[in-house]
Amino acid sequence: MAPIDTLSFKCALITGGGGGLGKAMATELLKQGKKVIIAGRTEKTLSETAKEIGATGYYVLDTGDIPSIASFVSKITKEHPDLDCLINNAGVQRPLEVTSSPEHKGYGFDLDSADQEININIRGPIHLAVTLLEKHFSKLENGAVIMNVSSVLGFVPFSVINPVYNGTKAFVHFFTTNLRQQLARQESKIKVVEIVPPQVESDLHRDRTNPDDNKKKSGAPALSVEEFMADVKEGWKTNQDTVAAGPGIEMTQLWDETFGTKLKAMAK
After folding, report:
1. In a domain, 2, yes or no
2. Backbone region of residue 95 per phi and psi (left: phi > 0; alpha: psi in -120 to 50; beta: other values)
3. Which end of the chain is more exposed for a tag (fewer CB within 10 A), N or C?
4. Which residues of the chain have pLDDT under 70?
């Protein structure tokens, strides 16, 4: 049995949906007639965004608080039994420069910050995806969709000041790839999609010395949110397993041509 199409779902949960790329994806899906629930750490932001875009609802959720995820899944699936799509979008990016000066953000060996980044970017998405699969998605007659947001930095780690972030996004890429392969072997009706943003104008760099160094006004070769969404919409529409944008399209194609063919052969 073939997986369902990317946009065949009815109700999506988007983590990190209060702003940035999460809000942009939520807005687009609402335009397409989907029910959208947003989740994030700050209730005020979630409440304002939900009201602004007309979201179905919102939940306060820190994806880095791993013990809370099981109860969250129980609550949201009870209150929204039609939930059939998860978009793991929440993430943080923090510099970790072990050779920088003390006054520079990210200086030293801040392992507490690194642990939190790993929890938010890796453990949270795993727990949400696997728990929803086990407790809810696998029981849906019409299938479900899981979308995990990685990054071009998970393919080529050229942002040298972000070794933890780069590693977490490489993890998301490989986890998503293998999850898709496992479900395909079982002829599951679960569609697994990877979204691969390049540098996009957002608040992702808020922990840097210059939080606007990913903005076009600062000379960054970044996509606007609108440019990013144009490519994402096309990827969704054409039912792609890997939905990239801007320069990320060529980068993911190069990876697939170089390693994807080998992966498919070796995985057999």
Report:
1. no
2. beta
3. C
4. 1-3, 100-109, 202-221
